Amino acid sequence: MNWDDFAGWSARIGAWGADYHKSLRDRPVRAQTKPGDIAAQLPLSPPEAPEQMDAIFGDIDAIIMPGMTHWQHPRFFAYFNSNAAPPSMLADQVASILAAQCMLWQTSPAATELETRVLDWLRQGLGLADGFAGVIQDSASSATLAAVLTMRERALNFTGNQKGLANGPVLRIYCSAEVHSSIDKAIWVSGIGQDNLVKIPIRAGDPLRGIDVEALRTAIKADIAAGYTPAGIIPCVGGTGTGATDPIADVMDVAEAYDLYTHVDAAWAGSAMLCPEFRDLWAGIDRAHSIVMNPHKWLGTNFDLCAHFVRTPADLVQTLSIQPEYLKTHGADGIINYSEWSVPLGRRFRALKLWFLIRAYGLDGLRTRLRNHVDWVQGLCAQLRVLPDVEIVSEPILALFTFRVGTDDGFNLRLVNTINDDGRIYITQTKVDGKLAIRFTGCQFDATKEDVDMAYEVITDIITQLRDDA
């Protein structure tokens, strides 16, 4: 392909992409294929001779599209949305065209300096204190791993990387039972071990399903008495299952009493903190050492872009920095090499899409979307609450709640599966206190009130259908 062909195909793909997004409401949200359907259409061996782009691109519609679940569909109410606003997609195209490897300041000064500035814009928008510095990670999983490694090194006086863990103290890290599984994986990868992740129960009767702070304090005291070394606490704001939110200020009181490193997982709900009226959910956040939030979940930057804010960057850099001669920048003082703030060495030019997004919508435009989503989802919850045999299992936290119909887990699972097979909306199930519940979150960037209203229509239609068939 020459560059003239590239320009022509770029224009064609751009037009195809616009048509795709404009037609999303006419497509089923979740892929309707069966396992193996797509693979059966793909040759077992690669081609030896080059193929024409017309044939290659034609197979997108013929083979790939039937097997796609449409994450940008306005009625995608499952998981947390992986949003992609148009300006962000355009920025990602620019980043792909430049194809820079932005591991060091010298390998692309613009990428480093833009990342510093645009994350400070985001920090200001979230109302975080001046002392926080930001770095872009690929996902909250990577940010949490970096934080757990920092907890580990800080507790070991920064000797773990050199000496290993075999002869050192047994470290303990604490969280609530509602945290995301990425916390568990970070504990595995860090070498601390699953048995040393202490999951504390939530407070009885708490609508926010936050951690029991007294139980946390008791667990730390017991571990110290047993000879363990507490290293850190990972509270969450807007947990994945139910939106569970820990009392951050109370957790910080405990952390400070025992000099523990704190990392707040606000991967989804952090975006909502652009709206001052929602910030009560993380009151005390400026006392945290580390915070993660994902603009690619709710804010509109396409995957992957995770914002990781740290109050003491020196601890993170001391944990992760390694400087062979070929990675050193000589003759330039005061620079940041963001690869020293991350586990991977290689870094894409991710800051460009956050820069495009904030400039294209402004913070006020983004706030309007966030507020709409919260209002519409809470309105749906209110509609479902008054229906016979519908139980709101966990109260709305921002734009997330869970419910079930009756007490039969089997019926509720059939309800979820039938709704998803219907195709008009997409939802998921979860477990709340050991029982199956239906999880609803409405955070798709282009969703309208009419899309959320359709969710009510579909849910009630399918309930009636299943009862009629029983």
What would you say this structure looks like, in words?
It is a single chain. Helix 7 (181-190) links the parallel strand 2 (171-176) and strand 3. The protein has 14 helices and eleven strands. It has helices at residues 3-22, 53-64, 86-98, 109-126, 140-155, 160-163, 181-190, 213-225, 248-257, 295-298, 313-320, 351-385, 409-422, 449-469, and strands spanning 133-137, 171-176, 197-200, 229-234, 261-265, 290-293, 306-310, 390-397, 400-405, 428-432, 435-441. It starts with a helix and ends with a helix. It folds into three domains: 3-67, dopa decarboxylase, N-terminal domain (Up-down Bundle); 101-348, Aspartate Aminotransferase, domain 2, CATH 3.40.640.10; 364-469, Aspartate Aminotransferase, domain 1. The strands form two sheets. Strands 1-7-6-5-4-2-3 form a seven-stranded mixed sheet, sandwiched between helices. Strands 8-9-11-10 form a four-stranded antiparallel sheet, with helices on one face.
Shape designation: globular
For CATH, the homologous superfamily of the largest domain is named as Type I PLP-dependent aspartate aminotransferase-like (Major domain)
The percent range for strand residues is: 5-15%
Number of strands: 11
What is the distance, rounded to the nearest whole angstrom, between the alpha carbons of the first and last residues? 59 Å
Main β sheet profile: 7 strands, mixed
Structural class, please? alpha/beta
Order of helices and strands: HHHHEHHEHEHEHEEHEHHEEHEEH
Poorly predicted ranges (pLDDT <50, ≥5 residues)?
none
Describe what is shown at a glance.
The protein has 470 residues and is α/β, with parallel strands linked by helices. It has helices spanning 3-22, 53-64, 86-98, 109-126, 140-155, 160-163, 181-190, 213-225, 248-257, 295-298, 313-320, 351-385, 409-422, 449-469, and strands at 133-137, 171-176, 197-200, 229-234, 261-265, 290-293, 306-310, 390-397, 400-405, 428-432, 435-441. The protein has a seven-stranded mixed sheet with strand order 1-7-6-5-4-2-3, sandwiched between helices.
